[in-house]
Every structure is written in C-alpha cells, then in structure tokens.
Amino acid sequence: TCKKLILSPGVLGTARIEIYSSLGEKVFKREEKNLSHRSISVNIKSGAGIYFISISAGRRIYQTPLIIVKD
C-alpha cells in the first residue's frame, strides 16, 4: 500500500524517518534532507492498521501515531 504523507516538522537538515507497526516492527526507514513542508510517499506493505512515525533530526525527535484505514 503506497501512502502519501505530508510532513511539516520544519526540519532543514537531514532527518531519519522511521515507521513502526503497533507490534514494534520497523516497516519503513528513510533519510531525507530539508523536510520543511514537503510530502513523501511511503510503501507500507502491512496495509491498514495503527503505526507510529518517528522523525529524528539532530537532537530533536518528533513522534506521532498514524492510522491507516482500508481503501
């Protein structure tokens, strides 16, 4: 399932994006530069469910839940 996420953490340097399933399994990992008001597409093969997004940039870590419903 390819989902488009709109990320706006205001990160200007390199950021590591990780998405975990509700069971703690890492299902996505990517490094991106200058995430300020950009959108990225991610491929989550597990489909619908509850996930957790973690964006690490320097000393900052942004975390939020993500709920994907079946299309």
Report the count of strand segments: 6
Low-confidence stretches: none
Instruction: Summarize model confidence as the mean pLDDT.
Output: 79
Radius of gyration: 12 Å
**Strand/helix succession:** EEEEEE
Structural class: mainly beta
Number of helices: 0
Description of the structure:
- This protein is globular.
- The N and C termini lie close together (10 Å).
- The strands form two sheets. Strands 3-2-5-6 form a four-stranded antiparallel sheet, with no helix packed on it. A two-stranded antiparallel ribbon has the order 1-4.
- The protein contains no helices and six strands.
- The model has no long low-confidence stretch (mean pLDDT 79).
- It has 71 residues and is mainly beta.
- Strand 2 and strand 3 (26-33) form a beta hairpin.
- It has strands at residues 2-7, 14-21, 26-33, 38-43, 49-57, 60-68.
